[in-house]
Design brief:
Shape: elongated
Strand order of the largest sheet: 1-2
Number of strands: 4
Largest sheet: 2 strands, antiparallel
Order of helices and strands: HEEEEHHHHHHH
Length: 226
């Protein structure tokens, strides 16, 4: 009788163990622990089980960037070219105030595309049109360089040097291949608005500032991870 009871107990125990082992284990994230020294609640270390991982996104070209970093926002695309272009504009107007007139450079841009009366006299609408055109082109060039730099995966010093080279090549192409071909009679108003050295320094400075701004932008960090 005793042996029969013992066999039945063993059978029930084995059945229970098999049933328990068939249940999948549930993994729980570790809860924050309270530090015995500071009394503060400590979160799990990054990379550990239960730690919240930063979400990432990607643009249409497959380049990754942290969400919330602004790499996909319009402002991050507009800002470098806009700031570089505005700095370039101010520099040319300061030099122009000594060489020709303060507003000669933006008005020279307007006259080149047929806005206003040729000359460097005070013309508010020509001045406004020249400023708008200059800043618009600067933003467009900034966006174009961002696309090129990300395609070529330029980072760090290569990004800055690339921006300066890009500005020089773009200037030569725009003046001699585009403006000289399309509006040769109006081009002297733009070229004569400031001395040649000021134009050279201004365009080089545009590229330098553009590259430096991109160094600190999410685009440079994204290129590092690609």
């Amino acid at each position: 009788m005793t042996n029969v009871i013992a066999d039945r107990v063993d059978s029930d125990t084995n059945r229970h163990m098999r049933r328990t082992s068939s249940v999948p284990a549930v993994t729980q994230n570790p809860a924050p622990e309270e530090s015995p020294t500071t009394g503060r609640t400590e979160q799990p270390a990054p990379g550990s089980r239960g730690a919240r991982q930063p979400s990432t996104g990607a643009d249409s070209a497959g380049h990754h960037y942290p969400r919330g970093s602004g790499a996909g926002s319009v402002w991050e695309w507009v800002r470098p070219g806009l700031i570089a272009g505005a700095t370039f504009l101010v520099f040319e107007m300061v030099v122009g105030s000594f060489a020709t007139t303060t507003w000669a450079f933006p008005e020279g841009i307007a006259h080149t595309i047929g806005i206003g009366v040729p000359g460097y006299e005070w013309q508010p609408w020509s001045l406004l049109a020249g400023v708008i055109v200059h800043l618009t082109v600067s933003v467009g060039l900034g966006v174009l360089f961002i696309v090129i730099a990300r395609r070529l995966r330029l980072t760090d010093s290569k990004l800055v040097v690339g921006a300066i080279v890009f500005s020089g090549v773009e200037t030569a192409f725009t003046i001699w291949a585009v403006l000289h071909t399309l509006v040769p009679s109006q081009l002297p108003f733009l070229l004569g608005s400031t001395p040649f050295w000021a134009s050279f320094v201004g365009h080089s400075g545009f590229g330098l500032i553009l590259g430096l701004l991109l160094l600190a932008s999410p685009f440079n960090a994204a290129a590092d991870r690609d």
